[in-house]
From TrEMBL:
Pfam families: Thioredoxin_8. This is Thioredoxin-like fold domain-containing protein. It comes from Tenacibaculum singaporense. Residues 1-19 form the signal peptide. Residues 52-143 form the Thioredoxin-like fold domain. Keywords: Signal.
Length: 160
């Protein structure tokens, strides 16, 4: 009986592997976002524009207090890692809320709005439940950090 319980425990623990994809799905890449000028652009095209560069991605909302607090850390990270491309994806309630909220955001980079928020293909792929969320995408377009809820040493180590 003891061996049986041990086997069940091992099987359970091994099935709890963390989902850490290295590539975006085609459907997540095809999700349409909006630019500051309200033009439609696919996530794939955003990545293609930045091909060959490491990309720091933050998913946030301008109304979210946790997102607002994170910008101080992002600014510090930007100063230490100016060679990175910074892409900010907003899940604000509306395009107009996002545009209005950007006035108080101190970080610089490429800003886009996700109209479908966490319910679209990109949000589902990322299992987007909470914000802020940070990702690192390497020069080849592979995801090197899939899920981080704060700017941390984990992110810093992946960009060096």
């Amino acid at each position: 009986m003891r061996k049986f319980c041990l086997l069940i425990t091992i099987a359970f623990l091994s099935s709890c592997a963390v989902f850490q994809p290295k590539h975006f799905t085609q459907t997540s890449l095809n999700e349409e976002l909006l630019t500051l000028e309200r033009e439609s652009i696919s996530f794939k095209k955003i990545l293609k524009r930045n091909k060959g560069k490491k990309i720091f991605v933050q998913i946030f909302a301008t109304y979210c207090p946790y997102s607002q607090k994170s910008f101080k850390d992002v600014l510090s990270f930007q100063k230490k890692n100016s060679e990175l491309v910074y892409v900010f994806l907003s899940v604000d309630h509306s395009y107009h809320d996002w545009k209005r909220g950007l006035e108080s955001i101190p970080v610089k980079g490429q800003h886009y709005y996700i109209p479908k928020k966490g319910k679209g293909a990109l949000g589902k792929f990322l299992k987007l439940k909470t914000i802020p969320r940070f990702l690192i995408i390497d020069e080849e377009g592979k995801i090197s950090v899939y899920k981080s809820s704060k700017v941390s040493d984990k992110l810093q180590n992946k960009v060096q």
